[in-house]
Automatic annotation (TrEMBL):
Family of this protein: Belongs to the glycosyl hydrolase 1 family.
Pfam family, one: Glyco_hydro_1
GO biological process: carbohydrate catabolic process
Signal peptide stretch: none
Keywords (A to Z) from UniProt: Glycosidase, Hydrolase
Coiled coil: none
Lineage: Bacteria, Bacillati, Actinomycetota, Actinomycetes, Micrococcales
Active site as annotated: E372
InterPro entries: GH, GH_1_N_CS, Glyco_hydro_1, Glyco_hydro_1_AS
Protein name (Swiss-Prot/TrEMBL): Glycoside hydrolase family 1 protein
Species this protein is from: Rothia santali
């Protein structure tokens, strides 16, 4: 329904923004940090920056936190690089790496900004990857050890923890994005075993967090893109339910209920890629309970029936985390004729965010927070050091209006953490694809001075946070 009067944002709403270690920090090999799978990638997409310097946040974090405080952030979502803490993934702890995040967290707390820490954001230690990566339970054990090191070091300062960023995108698109390897002769089966091992790592981590710091909150952080049927044709509705079950609910059902939903499990069995489930796994998965659900939302997907014998690629687009493709007999992604796209071909669907909030709330009844949502665009720095990103303000405004609609629908929403706090390096589309409230002056191949400039959206977000309501 269209609400006549919208409920206000809660007084303690977490006004935040997000980054990830590998995309913002740089200093990829400094102060004892070990290489991750990102650092050892050799085939970066043509013309895109590497991640060696990124936005140099590692050396400039005090300036960046001051800018966040100037906007009035009450929280900041960032990830800790596993290989700064344990350079080879499961060996010696690196004191300099531990210190960096103490300094960052202390800087945030000194400015009254609540840290929201993602424990793992795509950057698997290269040394573990060489020992079989997530397909091996060695990595599961190494992650749980790493998680306990984080809780022991930062558990008294950090109240909000996210386990794994976008596990579903790692599994479904990770090979294409270069963030996971599948080296056996049955890559799909190997990825589903890796997926199961990640669910176990997440479950054991949530149990450890509750044992060590019962007052802290921990949850998953998948990329949720609610799936629409392309038409009321029943076969399209089934296709949409297939893709919702496999892309979205598979991941949240495991995190919240500790179970594989029947449609997803039937799909895995049908394809012969169901994972080995060891004795005791399901008990661990069921025992772990998240305190909230974080999810990353950029847009919805729209799918049609995909009969066997027909090409399931509905649009020939270059698939990525927000551009679904298709699978014969399961679903065929198509363009939604009611939506416009960004300069990078991502559909824009603010109302879909409200639908996604509702769908997750209805299924799990846990507090929610969107930990990524934003517009990647080719921003332009003017001669006088301004960036007139009214298009980003429009994007954020429309998504926040729908967030307020969802709050008025009765959904419990903890905060909003758009992608990104400051410009950084895209997973696969370079630095030119900018998302930040703060412009970072560099190009793909020219670091320039990496100076920070406040965009128009910086001031818009600052006013929104100050008043706790959307400017008229
Ligand atoms: C999500 C990742 C983020 C970020 C975002 C934007 O999938 O969690 O790390 O990269 O996508 O995507 P991109 O950077 O490819 O534009």
């Amino acid at each position: 329904m269209h609400h006549q009067r919208l409920k206000p944002f809660p007084q303690d709403f977490l006004w935040s923004a997000s980054t990830s270690a590998y995309q913002v920090e740089g200093a990829w090999d400094e102060d004892g940090k070990g290489p991750s799978i990102i650092d050892t990638k050799t085939d970066l997409p043509e013309g895109t920056s590497d991640f060696t310097v990124a936005s140099d946040h590692y050396h400039r974090y005090k300036e960046d936190v001051a800018l966040m405080a100037e906007m009035g952030f009450t929280a900041y979502r960032f990830s800790i690089a596993w290989t700064r803490i344990v350079p080879d993934g499961d060996g010696e702890v690196n004191p300099a790496g531990v210190k960096f995040y103490h300094d960052l967290i202390d800087e945030l707390l000194a400015h009254g900004i609540e840290p929201i820490v993602t424990m793992f954001h795509f950057d698997t230690p290269a040394a573990l990857n060489e020992k079989g990566g997530w397909a091996s339970r060695t990595t599961t054990d190494a992650f749980v050890r790493y998680a306990n090191i984080l809780f022991d070091e930062y558990g008294s300062k950090v109240k909000y923890w996210l386990t794994i960023n976008e596990q579903n995108m790692m599994i479904m698109l990770g090979v294409k994005l270069g963030i996971i390897d599948a080296l056996t002769d049955n890559p799909a089966r190997e990825l589903m075993q890796a997926n199961h091992n990640m669910f176990l790592a997440q479950a054991r981590t949530m149990i450890a967090s509750h044992e060590k710091f019962p007052e802290n909150k921990i949850g998953p952080a998948p990329n949720i893109s609610y799936v629409y049927p392309a038409s009321p044709k029943p076969e399209d509705v089934i296709a949409a339910d297939n893709f919702n079950s496999i892309r979205n609910w598979l991941y949240l059902d495991l995190a919240v209920r500790g179970e594989y939903n029947s449609v997803a499990w039937a799909y895995l069995e049908e394809k012969g890629i169901a994972p080995e489930i060891a004795e005791g796994d399901l008990e661990v998965l069921r025992a772990a309970k998240p305190d909230f659900i974080a999810f990353n939302y950029y847009n919805t997907s729209t799918v049609a029936d995909a009969p066997f014998g027909e090409n399931p690629d509905g649009r020939g687009a270059d698939a990525d985390q927000q551009i679904a493709a298709g699978e014969e007999g399961v679903y065929k992604a198509v363009d939604n004729p009611h939506l416009v796209k960004t300069q990078f071909g991502w559909e824009i669907d603010p109302v879909g965010m409200r639908m996604t909030y509702r769908a997750i709330w209805d299924r799990y009844r846990l507090p929610l927070i969107v930990t990524e949502n934003g517009l990647g665009a080719f921003d332009e720095l003017t001669e006088d050091g301004r960036v007139h990103d009214d298009y980003r303000i429009e994007y954020l405004r429309r998504h926040l209006e729908q967030t307020q609609e969802a709050i008025t629908d009765g959904v419990e929403i903890l905060g909003y953490s758009p992608w990104t706090a400051i410009d950084l390096v895209s997973t696969h589309q370079g630095v030119a694809k900018r998302y930040g409230f703060v412009y970072v002056d560099r190009t793909e191949d020219d670091l320039r001075d990496l100076a920070r400039y406040r965009k128009d959206s910086f001031y818009w977000y600052q006013e929104l946070i100050r008043t706790n309501e959307l400017p008229a």
